[in-house]
């Protein structure tokens, strides 16, 4: 067995010298290098933007969607939509573990895993397309995929439905980062606490800050707030538009007796909430931006504009142990399992 | 004296409830609230994008530029260019310090200061436009400005030329953050080390890491690299395009014997250098993005794509003591003073 590059550079064909994700074409030969994992694929979870684009291009015809998918993989060696630039993830069974990884990865041949790196960088072959679920953007196939040494994955738990596990894994970086940064007794503000990542973050914030901590959830809309109040994890639930910086500041000032948050975690899925996050946070506190709508320049310039000496962290989707931590959160909390089963599965 | 809001909300006219920066119009009455500072303005340093726009609109006619400036301030109560959205900063003399700030700010009436918050949120009146320097985008005026309680400023040092001080103050957050994060003995990579912020960061990194630390400077172009080698602050100077992630990774791997950087500081002024920063950094290390060209999503998705558990920090332009630290760096280092005098003043 030959050894490949940790990041998969040995499979890049075109352009030479690129990383696998930005590369146009990679080598999808389903033969394992000594530091790769070969996966027998069951299902592709296509990124929503990518699937909608293909469905439109195919006028909703599943046979044409299948044709587009085969062409993408034939052209590029990966399911990297050339129009949207996005990928998705996959579920499959471990078929082979390269010899250099044996003993290093906590995996056995035959186990079911979900990849946590994008399909846009994952070598993939499709032998047959079995079923296209147009509602869920899920495609059952016969095929093989390769996971690089640096590639992230999670074992699919036997005790949770696949779809619940996938929904949790999709945002598992956020609660794991919460566990890393939030200390016992701290005051934590969660913006957008009623969404998928917000719920996991809120639960973890309560656990990490402990009963002596103070947790404030901000969510827009009475329905979401009622759900959060019913859960009882936050000391206070505030119904507010997180783009309204002045209102958020005043509400958090009141809720914290003017102390503001030690840590603010932004899980809002709309743009324009940087200033709210900054104003909710005490001097020398920290803001953790998990929202993909965050603007780097808005965050940097807003903090300077109000003279706030705070640490602003870019949400890294990966933290060690993030998948296990998030799945445990759901496993150990019946309300969370119920909400994820009803809303996201 | 009435007391105003810390962030200047009491001066917002339109739209109600906005922060002063996004507000269309603010109250520029040059009368000090008890927590404001009144400044007798000498010079406006107009943001470059804003000045170019006005010069074009005026076909280069300084009288027309003056007219546009007066109209902007009359309409908005601040020199907030309605086309570019940008501001600039100003130099002036402290005329009055609100009574609630006396003893709290280290300032005296008559001292010369530069504001470190944008003109786009600074209440300003213009009585007379004295001189427009179209090469430097500097406008000497008679007028008054207001600094809010949260507003940042720096005393202009008597021992440095104004223009050197302004160039240093423009980027003073970067070396101050370097001093906060870099520890003795660490390995530090500075990307874009030959630019204005890069030079200050490189100098501070050497001081903070000490002789036992390892400092690696990456700069694109042989001329810049020769300058850096001549300074002798970096243990190694590498001539590389920071957008080429694979080359940067390999160069840093070699320069660090495969250990990579504890801290990587990105001062590059072009887009597309997020992956290089991530790959240059060791697992559980830190990347500090000072470049305004940074894309939030590129950083977040790149780290996940390569499974790198690192902390990525958004460069906050403000850190306590940032102006003093940066001016001292230049004052105490004749080479830095010479370069700033030649290149940026």
UniProtKB/TrEMBL annotation, chains A, B:
Q: Give GO terms: molecular function aspect only.
A: metal ion binding; oxidoreductase activity
Cofactor(s) the record lists: Zn(2+)
Query: Keywords on this record?
Result: Metal-binding, Oxidoreductase, Zinc
Which domain of life does the protein's organism represent?
Bacteria
Q: Which Gene3D superfamilies match?
A: Medium-chain alcohol dehydrogenases, catalytic domain (3.90.180.10)
- The record places domain L-erythro-3,5-diaminohexanoate dehydrogenase N-terminal at 10-157
Q: Which residues form a coiled coil?
A: none
Please report the stretch or stretches of sequence annotated as the Alcohol dehydrogenase-like C-terminal domain: 198-293
Q: Name one Pfam family in it.
A: KDD_N
InterPro entries given for it? ADH-like_C, KDD_N, NAD(P)-bd_dom_sf
Tell whether Oxidoreductase is among the UniProt keywords.
yes
User: SUPFAM superfamilies in the record, alphabetically?
Assistant: NAD(P)-binding Rossmann-fold domains
Similarity section: Belongs to the zinc-containing alcohol dehydrogenase family.
Record-given protein name: L-erythro-3,5-diaminohexanoate dehydrogenase
Q: What is the lineage of its organism?
A: Bacteria, Bacillati, Bacillota, Bacilli, Bacillales
